[in-house]
Amino acid sequence: MIAQREVRTYSEQVKVWVGKYKNSHNLLHWHYDCELLYVDKGSIDVFCGKQTHRLLPGEALYVDSEQVHYMQALDPETILTVLIFDYEILRPYMGDISLACPKLSGRYPVPQTYREIRDLLLEKPPFYAGEAVGKIISLMASIFRGEPLSGRRPDDRTSKQLIGLLEAVSSRCDEFSFGQACEFMGMSDAYFSRYFKKATGITFSQYLNYARTQRAVSMLSEREHTMTEIACACGFGTIRNFNRIFKQFTGYAPSELPAGFSFSETFVYPSEHAFNPTLHDCELIESGET
Q1: 3-state secondary structure string across the chain
Q2: pTM exceeds 0.70, yes or no
Q3: Does some domain include residue 259?
Q4: Which domain holds residue 197?
């Protein structure tokens, strides 16, 4: 997923989802939901709140609603516990406060809460939906009481502008330019470059090429277009440029892309170098769904 909004589908209107991933990774994205991450085993880098945080066993990180983020497990055996829930659960209690840092400095009963909610979602006893929500509120109350707080939430206007830009580039990657991005954000060239890199962890050029590569992978899977047509439709300009950037981000030349290849599941981390895509296998090993 290239910095688009991830939409969480909850089961039976229960606005809470829990699960465990092995070797978790994803691309730049955002969602209205809140997300709590906890490392059971291994280590993972999470970009959130305009910086990268390394999580080790027993450490946790909170991704607030509408925060742009991505992650990469540093060890393929890394096990990550994930709790996702609708921001509306917290909205009545939040006011203008937010955590000063996404990475939690204290230790909280995340594993216990995960197990309790998972059992509720699997067994579905009477009032289980309300009980699951109550456990989320209780856990988040302990976190917000135990962590340093910021007196105000991030600048919503600028954050929403950035999200709008990311979506606009993703849908119009063939024609979008650096100059248009600066104009969209109302910033000078130099200021926009610094802002975008700090806010997303990557350069605007990298993001634009991600979006173009994602579209190219999709068009290749349709097997209805020539390489020249794809290069033009995705904004690469020339076949040479198309081949170079495509291989940089997927590990394959366009003509050698394996059937069923998924860019969003395979490409993990901003890099100027090619990589072995077979190294990145993310697996959902447990969840609160039957």
Answers
A1: CCCCECCCCCHHHCCEEEEEEECCEEEEEECCCEEEEEEEECCEEEEECCEEEEECCCCEEEECCCCCEEEEECCCCCEEEEEEECHHHCHHHHCCCEECCCECCCCCCHHHHHHHHHHHHHHCCCCHHHHHHHHHHHHHHHHHHHCCEECCCCCHHHHHHHHHHHHHHHHCCCCCCHHHHHHHHCCCHHHHHHHHHHHHCCCHHHHHHHHHHHHHHHHHHHCCCCHHHHHHHCCCCCHHHHHHHHHHHHCCCHHHCCCCCCHHHHCCCCCCCCCCHHHCCCEEEEECCC
A2: yes
A3: yes
A4: 156-267
